[in-house]
């Protein structure tokens, strides 16, 4: 074992393979530590990704000259309590800076969430009157225009395109002298309009980004019918009632290390989860298949007779079975029968193992046959060594290095097969490289414009496989010295 | 005498390959039946028919207890009709045995006939025959190109072992053993289809190009090439690595033999050595590799065809599985295994011709 490692370190391919493998292991450990245990559930719940911008490139796209508007996601829990003629209100203010000539992503655009809402009543004239909340979100733009973004009695709101369009159109007619017919354009792209200004170019109007400071004012009014607002104000001021904090999200046009997909998944997290899954899939399948092949091959080769004949014929039949259709069939059934992703995964891997030990067994059998014919085996037997002793003492040690090398070599095919099944829509339910590529393939019309969605998972699959291919080649030359000549 | 013994040996092989064909089909039947797959498919069919029937009855004015009674009766009739009241083996094995008798039946689903470009309901055999040429155009052509390149290059590479070219080939083989073909296909569609716009992004048009081929061969050939060039290119690039690697490995074993050294010492030209002293000797394993690869290609690549949305054998497999078209599925498994088994039998015969050392 020590000798093998030494030789590996003196082989360029071996070193490269080991280096990549070390990287894969480090990433897997990091994934296990950094991601919560119920991460697959989170990944498959679209609600968990509502805040994230949809289909945006990674933040480092800026090095290609892409103008990055960062994601803005701020909580405010220190409202001003104000008194108005009819209501009392909590006012949460947010300051947003647009510093580059680009627009925030319009999906989801602007989101306002309120937290910790505690309803309250106001006593007046011997009655207890409930105070009804309503929300009003406005923005003060760098050019001084004030636009209402959303109003409503639901406390979580997003942009109301119609309101924005009608207000902005008349403001722009006043401030920029553009025809009010632009209202249709604004309604189609309210986020661009909110963060932009009109420029007349050759008769047509274009909306360009408007840089500067935007002040978002989230006002939550409380109205108790028939009660003087001052009393409501007093109750609010005493604290402990109304809304505790407000979250404002303004979507970036880029996100994180690896961008996002259509659902808003932070792809970096999905890719990270892919590391341990790929290693598990590959190593489990390869190890199990090689273990079966090793046992069956040695038994078949050593004992011979009808056992050997039966095993040979069995392998022959299995070699004729088209394995991928069977896997697709099983995967399809498993998807309906079981909800737990791990159950699904291990059933599919089990079938894969069941059909992939044959080639290994054939080679091990012929190696066993030739070792059994060696004179020293005969000598051992003459001395009185038991079959067990001969197998474990003389045959296994010669075969195990070879088996190990072919195990390493067969790791990639399991990883690629599992990812391929995902492409076919057989979803295990675990996030990973295959499932990310699968969703790209299903949304190919849009996804194939998104390099950050199509390329990284495939590159990671290829790099992972390459690590094992390189290690396999290096190990093969070590255990099979005939291949070494001339290198 | 030798011919007689040879015939016996080949006949034994043929019988054995035939048995394994039967086992594969029966095993498929077990998987389809025992996992509950076919039951689920039939239940879905029954539910769809019940819903349609219920709508018709409601429109006709039936309601309440009366409606439920009629529906219940209809459901029981359907369950009997599809054999859901029987254990799975009584449902699945007759179908498997009919398949083995080459009675492939008709497709259950309209979509399957649509993929083939045929009227529904279509005979399964006709569907497979309609789809097979598309897989040949994409995969078998790619394998043939690989074979030509590998056979031309590999002896020379093996001959110049350790050279830069040899190392480049090794690196290429390692790299493309690791890169999944279907991802390469996605990248190719992304780059050539969507970004550069010089390849199709929708490949269903190939159906027309092949079905109407004989009406106007030159025009249809151009159309066919337009659809096929990217898939062929992708598959060729992906497969060439393992082709080169395998043929090289076969050649290497021969190159270090004494008679090759002697030939070199005699001053024979490299190309003559490659042809007469290397290729001729490795003819048997090479033939095995080529024939198995070509036979394997006829079964289609499920995933790569799915990515290209290429309406070939792989897609037919996939669609028949997800739609639950059991007759088509049986037909496909039977035909692909049959092709493979026939290829293996041809190999047995070829071995005798190509390798004079084999005698029975």
Shape of chain A: elongated
Order of helices and strands of chain A: HHHEEEEEEEEEHHHEEEHEHHHHHHHHHH
The third-level CATH topology of the largest domain in chain B is MetI-like fold
**Span of the ends, CA to CA of chain B:** 10 Å
Average pLDDT for all residues of chain B: 86
Total beta-strand segments of chain A: 13
The number of helical elements of chain A comes to: 17
- The overall average pLDDT of chain A, rounded, is 90
Cα radius of gyration of chain A in angstroms: 33 Å
Please write the string of helix (H) and strand (E) elements of chain B: HHHHHHHHHHHHHHHH
Shape of chain B: elongated
Would you tell me the structural class of the helices and strands of chain A? alpha+beta
SS strand fraction of chain A: 15-25%
Low-confidence stretches of chain B: none
The CATH architecture of the largest domain in chain A: Orthogonal Bundle
How many domains of chain B? The number is 2
End-to-end Cα distance of chain A:
22 Å
Reported for the largest beta sheet of chain B, the result is:
none
Helix content of chain A: 40-55%
Q: Rg of chain B to the nearest angstrom?
A: 26 Å
What does this structure look like?
The complex is a heterodimer of chains A (about 475) and B (about 350). Residues about 480-485 of chain A have low confidence and may be disordered. Chain A contains 17 helices and 13 strands. Chain A folds into 2 domains: about 1-45 and about 265-485, MetI-like fold (Orthogonal Bundle); about 70-250, no CATH class. Chain A has helices spanning about 1-10, 10-35, 40-45, 160-175, 185-190, 190-195, 230-240, 265-305, 305-320, 325-335, 340-355, 360-370, 375-385, 385-425, 435-440, 445, 450-480, and strands at about 70-75, 80-85, 90-100, 110-115, 120-125, 125-130, 130-140, 145-150, 155-160, 195-200, 205-210, 210-225, 245-250. In chain B, helix 5 (about 110-115) crosses helix 6 (about 125-160). The longest helix of chain B has about 40 residues, at about 215-255. The model of chain B has no long low-confidence stretch (mean pLDDT about 85). At the A-B interface, helix 9, helix 10, helix 14, helix 15 and helix 17 of A face helix 1, helix 7, helix 8, helix 14 and helix 15 of B.
């Amino acid at each position: 074992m020590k000798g093998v490692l030494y030789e590996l370190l003196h082989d360029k391919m071996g070193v490269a393979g080991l280096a990549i493998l070390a990287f894969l292991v480090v990433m897997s450990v990091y994934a296990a530590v950094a991601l919560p245990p119920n991460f697959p559930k989170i990944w498959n719940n679209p609600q968990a990704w509502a805040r994230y911008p949809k289909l945006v490139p990674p933040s480092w796209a800026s090095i290609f000259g892409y103008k990055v508007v960062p994601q803005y996601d701020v909580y405010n829990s220190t409202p001003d309590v104000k008194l108005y003629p009819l209501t009392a209100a909590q006012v949460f203010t947010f300051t947003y800076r647009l510093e580059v000539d680009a627009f925030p992503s319009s999906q989801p655009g602007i989101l306002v969430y309120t937290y910790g809402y505690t309803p309250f009543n106001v006593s007046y004239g011997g009655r207890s009157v409930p105070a009804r909340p309503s929300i009003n979100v406005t923005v003060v733009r760098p050019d001084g225009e004030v636009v209402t973004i959303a109003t409503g009695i639901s406390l979580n709101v997003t942009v109301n395109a119609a309101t924005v369009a009608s207000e902005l159109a008349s403001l722009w007619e006043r401030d920029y002298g553009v025809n009010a017919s632009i209202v249709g354009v604004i309604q189609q792209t309210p986020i661009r309009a909110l963060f932009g200004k009109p420029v007349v170019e050759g008769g047509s109007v274009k909306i360009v980004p408007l840089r500067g400071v935007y002040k978002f004012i989230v006002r939550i009014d409380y109205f108790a019918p028939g009660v003087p607002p001052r009393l409501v104000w007093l109750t609010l001021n005493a604290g402990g009632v109304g809304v505790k904090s407000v979250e404002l999200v303004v979507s970036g046009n880029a996100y994180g290390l690896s961008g996002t997909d259509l659902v808003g998944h932070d792809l970096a997290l999905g890719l990270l989860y892919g590391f341990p899954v790929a290693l598990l899939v590959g190593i489990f399948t390869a190890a199990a298949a090689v273990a079966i092949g090793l046992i069956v091959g040695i038994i078949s080769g050593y004992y011979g007779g009808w056992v050997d004949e039966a095993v040979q014929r069995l392998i022959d039949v299995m070699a004729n079975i088209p394995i991928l259709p069977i896997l697709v069939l099983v995967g399809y059934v498993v998807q309906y029968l079981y909800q737990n992703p791990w159950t699904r995964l291990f059933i599919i891997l089990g079938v894969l193992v069941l059909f992939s030990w044959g080639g290994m067994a054939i080679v091990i059998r012929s190696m066993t046959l030739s070792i059994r014919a060696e004179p020293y085996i005969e000598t051992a037997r003459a001395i009185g060594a038991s079959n067990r002793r001969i197998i474990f003492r003389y045959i296994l040690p010669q075969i195990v290095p070879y088996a190990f090398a072919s195990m390493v070599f067969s790791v990639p095919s399991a990883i690629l097969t599992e990812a391929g099944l995902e492409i076919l829509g057989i979803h295990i339910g675990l996030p990973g490289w295959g499932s990310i590529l699968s969703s790209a393939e299903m949304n190919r019309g849009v996804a194939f414009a998104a390099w950050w969605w199509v390329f990284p998972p495939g590159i990671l699959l290829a790099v992972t496989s390459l690590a094992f291919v390189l290690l396999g080649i290096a190990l093969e030359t070590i255990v099979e010295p005939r291949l070494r000549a001339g290198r | 005498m030798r011919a007689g013994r040879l015939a016996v040996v080949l006949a034994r092989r043929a019988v054995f390959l035939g048995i394994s064909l039967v086992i594969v089909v029966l095993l498929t039947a077990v998987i389809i039946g025992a996992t509950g797959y076919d039951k689920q498919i039939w239940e879905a069919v029954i539910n769809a028919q019940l819903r349609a029937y219920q709508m018709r009855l409601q429109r006709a004015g039936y309601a309440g207890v009366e409606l439920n009674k009629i529906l219940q009766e209809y459901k029981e009739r359907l369950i009997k009709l599809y054999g859901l009241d029987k254990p799975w083996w009584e449902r699945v094995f007759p179908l498997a045995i009919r398949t083995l008798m080459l009675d492939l039946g008709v497709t259950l689903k309209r979509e399957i006939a649509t993929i083939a470009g045929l009227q529904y309901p279509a005979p399964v055999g006709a569907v497979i025959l309609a789809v097979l040429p598309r897989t040949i155009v994409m995969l078998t052509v790619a394998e043939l190109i690989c074979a030509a390149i590998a056979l031309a290059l590999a002896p020379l590479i093996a001959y110049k072992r350790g050279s830069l070219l040899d190392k480049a080939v090794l690196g290429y083989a390692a790299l493309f053993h690791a890169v999944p073909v279907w991802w390469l296909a996605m990248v190719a569609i992304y780059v050539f289809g969507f970004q550069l716009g010089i390849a199709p992004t929708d490949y269903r048009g190939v159906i027309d190009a092949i079905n109407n081929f004989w009406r106007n061969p030159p025009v249809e050939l151009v159309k066919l090439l337009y659809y096929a060039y990217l898939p062929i290119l992708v598959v060729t690039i992906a497969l060439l690595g393992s082709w080169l690697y395998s043929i090289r490995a076969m050649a290497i074993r021969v190159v270090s033999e004494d008679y090759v050294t002697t030939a070199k010492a005699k001053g024979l030209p490299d190309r003559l050595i490659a042809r007469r002293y290397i290729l001729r000797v490795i003819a048997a394993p090479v033939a095995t590799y080529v024939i198995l690869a070509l036979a394997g290609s006829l079964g289609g690549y499920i995933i790569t065809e799915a990515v290209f949305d290429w309406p070939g054998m792989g897609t037919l497999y996939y669609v028949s599985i997800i739609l639950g078209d059991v007759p088509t599925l049986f037909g496909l498994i039977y035909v692909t295994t049959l092709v493979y088994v026939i290829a293996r039998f041809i190999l047995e015969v070829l071995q005798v011709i190509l390798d004079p050392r084999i005698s029975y």
